[in-house]
Amino acid sequence: MLRRAALGLLGCLSLTVVAPALSFAQDKKVTIRIASAFEQTTDMMQAAKRFADLVKERSQDNIEVKLFAGGQMGGEKDIVEALKLGELEMGVLGTYPIVSLTPKYSFFDAPFVFRDKEHVYKAWSGKLGDEVRDNFKKNHGIRAIGMMGRGYRHITSNTPINSVDDLKGMKIRMGQSKPFIDAFSATGAVVVPIALPELFTSLKLGVVSASDGPFDQIASFKLQEAQKYIALTGHLYATSLWLMNDRFYEGLSAKQKEVVNQAAKEALAYGDELAAASEKALGEKLQQAGMQFTKPDYAAFMAKAKPAADKLFSEQWSVTTADEIANIR
């Protein structure tokens, strides 16, 4: 009896040792190249590095991940095209793929549409996000691996903004995005399209007296040296999409897919934590530099911008309505 027990224990020990070695024995080794226009120091690429490390460890070196940050493989348009053609395995991008590949869903990159980060994530994980993912896959051969946060956009200004009425007549810098131009025009602001590299000089010369952007943009362009106030409107929560060539993904073994899926889930959650911590640290840095924060009622901004948003939903984003999105809880 003791002998049988010992043999049984030995069998269990043998299985425990051998199983991991066999997990990827039948799987062909593959390489995942991840390209991004964003620098390696960004939260997005730090999260991608975590993904690479997790994949390497859990696949027992069966899957190699190589990172190409800072536009080494081109800008976002180039990366999306390479993903579609199967010339690249994976990309870490902003929301450009939604705007360019599924323009009817580009409200994901528009101001005054979502209440906050949680609202964005619920929409992305629900019916509307499913439709974007299905479109990516069926029409472009791209699989959406997941989404992580990048931070809220706020308004900088020369004078404090305590309510949406304070925007009336204020000259504010915008890029060339129609949703931004239309929405801020609806609040009563005077929108002046200016290229981002010219923003600081334009503020100093008084061409404009306000701008919008996330904390990292405000800090990197040293707007604390040109502006005194930040209104914490959070009118858009910016996100990063992680995409993979679908044919490549489907060519992975079941075990390889499991490793990739779980590593992506954990790395994206890590990226969200990094983004939240960076946002907090940058906000404190800007306050220490002398910028004063105001917290106007965001609902009033959304109400002012709603007519412009409704028109965009009617003309460009006909897959849904502002009211339908507002009811996502």
From TrEMBL:
Signal peptide boundaries: 1-19
Task: Return the Pfam families for the record.
Answer: DctP
GO BP of this protein: transmembrane transport
Q: Which keywords annotate this record?
A: Receptor, Signal, Transport
**Gene Ontology CC entries for this record:** outer membrane-bounded periplasmic space
Keyword Transport belongs to the record: yes
- Cellular compartment(s): Cell envelope
Keyword field contains Ligase? no
Gene3D superfamilies per UniProt: Bacterial extracellular solute-binding protein, family 7 (3.40.190.170)
Family indicated by similarity: Belongs to the bacterial solute-binding protein 7 family.
The protein in question is named Tripartite ATP-independent transporter DctP family solute receptor
Identify the species of origin: Microvirga subterranea
